[in-house]
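Input record (one chain):
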Amino acid sequence: MIFDTIRELEMLLSDITFSGINNIDYSTIEKIEKLADRFEKISMHNIKVLLIELIQSIKKYKSDNDNKKTNIKEVSSNIAKIEFYIRNSLSYE
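The corresponding structure, as predicted from the sequence alone:
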């Protein structure tokens, strides 16, 4: 179950990366929230925190038009943190 959830997150991040951050809609944010809840249920609190940070940065990017450059860097950084976490998690499979 853990690795299935991680793989589902990988696919979602891949979709975000290839479709572009500008194309993230609120259904994608809902999917991330659901994954965060699933990680919480299986006691993977660190990745849940990373996902919540990603959600917040996406919402900030979408709502704050004055600091797009800074906000896009924050979203990208959060995606990179999650990717790093996933790579380390899957290395123990």
